[in-house]
Amino acid sequence: AARHRDAIASTGRFLTFSAGAATIGYRMRENPRERVPLRLVRETDSGVVVSGKVGMYTSPAYAEDVYVGSHGGIERGPHRLTFVVPVNAPGVTVLCRKIAARHPNPFMAPMSSRYDELDGQMWLEDVFIPSERIFLMDVTPEPMASWLFWHQLYCWLSKAEFTLGLALACTHAMGLVEHEPSIEYLIDLIVDVQTVRSCTTAAELDPEVTAEGYCIPNRSHIGAGSIAVMKARQRMAEILRILPGSSLVVAPSDKDLAAPEVGAGLAESFEGGGYTALQRAALLQLACDHVASALDGRESTFELHANGGVPAWRGRLRKYFGRYNELANGVLRALNVDMPEIDLDILRAAPLSPRRPVTPPTPKAPPPASA
After folding, report:
1. With 90 as the cut, is the pLDDT of residue 246 above it?
2. Sequence-separated (6 or more) residues with CB below 8 Å from residue 73
3. pLDDT per position as a tens digit, 292-322
């Protein structure tokens, strides 16, 4: 693992993460033993050969290597076989979903013409994995994902801050800086952003220490921040749709403003208050593309499933919160009565929720043969 980390640091190769979960087709197989996403074809002196299909993983357009986690299901004693595989290795096929629909004019699609929420599947057919790229891990990918959760929360915070920045800019451009209801919307966004920022800061300044002696971001803070931003995300987008008013819907394009037939009239409709019509239209198009586009919808859909969604994050927070006994017994010390010692470790001992169980439909019996 240390050698592979050093190799990534020296080469700068883009490594992305897949938990290794099965596709829905595999999970619907009649034989439960065939529902695991990966199977060990054979072992050699220098590695293993695997086949199967792995569900969603992120950044396929950029990734050079993919870490396939323990949901892949290949057992090695008490551990799971996980591995890193190049996307161009023999036998590997990567399938990405189609790009989000967007307007062909970048002025109308300033975000979605540059970015996309693009996920994919990985198919492996007799793919050789050398021993130096194999890592035996726990049956859950949680330990491996600790830093990834931190990184993901930072990404969510970045989008939240971008949303707040757009809301502030639109408030100014639409002449609403003295409109109290609009300012209340801004305060709502600031509360959401600062809550997540506080959680990321706390995760770094109050880290956990692993059994091996390494610091990792405190997962109780990461869990609280992740739940907070996932709950706030839809409302934040809704506020940004509300703040600019109906101008968000009818803002012109740069080509509209340059058209001899309607340009002068549109300029009269959208200029003023220190902004040209082109400037105000550009800002409105940016806000619209951020929260009212196909990109926004598919990115929202991805976030609802990110790492199991809110239910999984609640399970992680239950497991990682470490102050149950401290807080409960601290309250008892305020009493002038001898009280029993409270032990609530059972709350943390609960296993993380498994993926939603899939029950394949029972095949219907064939109709009886006609006489």
Report:
1. yes
2. 20, 22, 36, 37, 38, 80
3. 998 888 888 877 776 778 888 999 999 999 9
The domain limits of the chain are 2-137, 142-318, 322-349
In CATH, what class is 142-318?
mainly alpha
Asked if 250 contacts 270 with a C-beta cutoff of 8 angstroms, the reply is no
Question: How far are the Cα atoms of 114, 171, 248, 343 from residue 163, in angstroms, in the given order?
Answer: 17, 12, 15, 43
At position 333, the amino acid (one-letter code) is: R
Two structure tokens written together for 67:
């870490």
Which amino acid belongs to residue 1? Answer: A
Q: Which residues is 81 bridged to in the sheet?
A: 136
Residue 371 pLDDT class (50, 70, 90 cuts): low
Mean pLDDT in the chain? 91
For residues 219 and 210, what is the distance between their CA atoms, to the nearest angstrom? Answer: 12
- CATH number for the region 2-137 comes to 2.40.110.10
User: CB neighbours of 229 closer than 8 A, spacing ≥ 6?
Assistant: 153, 156, 157, 160, 192, 195, 196
What are the structure tokens assigned to 75, written together? 């057992």
Q: How far apart are CA 182 and CA 243, in angstroms?
A: 7
Q: What's the token pair of residue 63?
A: 């990734």
